[in-house]
Amino acid sequence: MKNIQIEVDAWFLYQKLSDNEEDPILADVFKQMSEIELSHAIAFAKENKVDPTQICKPSWRAKTINRIGKIFGYDYVLGALMDTEKSLADAVVSQKRKNKVPVVGNEDSHVKILRSILDNDTRIAGSQLSRFEKRHRSVGGNAIRAAVLGGNDGLVSNFSLVMGIAGATVAQTGVLLAGIAGLLAGALSMALGEWISVKSSQELYENQMQLEMDELETNPEGERKELKLIYMAKGIPEDQAVKIVDDLKKDKNLAHQVLVKEELGINAEELKGSAIEAALSSFFLFAIGAIIPVLPFMFLSGYQAIVLSTLLSAIGLFLIGAAITLFTGRNVWFSGFRQVIFGLAAAAVTFGIGKLIGVSMAG
């Protein structure tokens, strides 16, 4: 039944991509993928003796991804689809190797089907292929994923810190000060790290991109041949590769973007983000997670605050684990409770250490 639901969700999301795609050719590609996924779902249903008319109900996960697409744009939906299918393919390969079952090469068939349609449809011009690549790759560092992971870092680290201090002393003021200090220290550290990371990457990539532009201007024919070979290496026939390159040659900036992406592995769109904005986002996302275990100590003290802090943190951990399934496709309950168990275990360890230190100091 799980395979059926995966196929139904993919059918639903590709259909939404098709409905919201302005480019008619790419919309048709997504429509083809939607029809293929539906046919897979029907085949799985028949194989499992399930009525095919009863399967066309997308899961909460697919509906949530679609709602996010409505708010943040359907590039996110495309990225989620590609990421999920890749992770599922990797999981299948890993499981086969673990069980010593031969890997036959069709484990990532969904991704290959989409690539095949894009590469072999003669209507797909170089600009459209480049746009597709740019869109689905740019989603890897999207704000939704950053929000989940940033909040998780803040919650787990500060929950552990607060429990450690609470184990050493039940004094409300001490725990509260430590929690706020941990929040600020962690958020500032995350923000500075993000600023340095973004800024240094931008400077490095901008230098590499300028070198590539210089090569394109001084040796356009050599770069044209290089582009053709890149596409041929992907399995595109030579005549179609030449057509794509000729189309790209009409726009030097577009040709530069493709060369940068294919040769250097750089997505130019990702470099347009502000290092300051990234730092501020990282600060607030960490702080949102870190404030959860601290809140009870603002109003309560002693074991009442400890119990409430643990309860709120457990709820937050479960929601973060559930949110992670938007990217992994795993079971919500499994992912949510796994996050709770790991988070509580970390907090229990620091609480125990704090208790030992507190008893030692008191003695």
Question: What does this protein structure show overall?
Answer:
This protein folds into 2 domains: 2-116, no CATH class; 142-362, no CATH class. Helix content is 80%, strand content 0%. The chain contains 14 helices and no strands. It has helices spanning 2-20, 24-47, 60-72, 75-98, 109-120, 126-138, 143-168, 172-218, 220-233, 238-249, 252-264, 275-291, 302-328, 332-362. The model is unreliable at 104-108 and 136-142 (pLDDT under 50).
Report the β-strand fraction as a percent range: under 5%
Report the order of strands and helices: HHHHHHHHHHHHHH
Alpha-carbon distance between the termini? 60 Å
> For the residues shown, what is the average pLDDT?
76
- What shape does the CA trace take? flat
Structural class: mainly alpha
The percent of residues in helical segments reads: over 70%
Tally the helices: what do you get? Answer: 14
The main pleated sheet reads as: none
Radius of gyration: 25 Å
Low-confidence region ranges? 104-108, 136-142
Number of strands: 0
- How many structural units, i.e. domains? 2
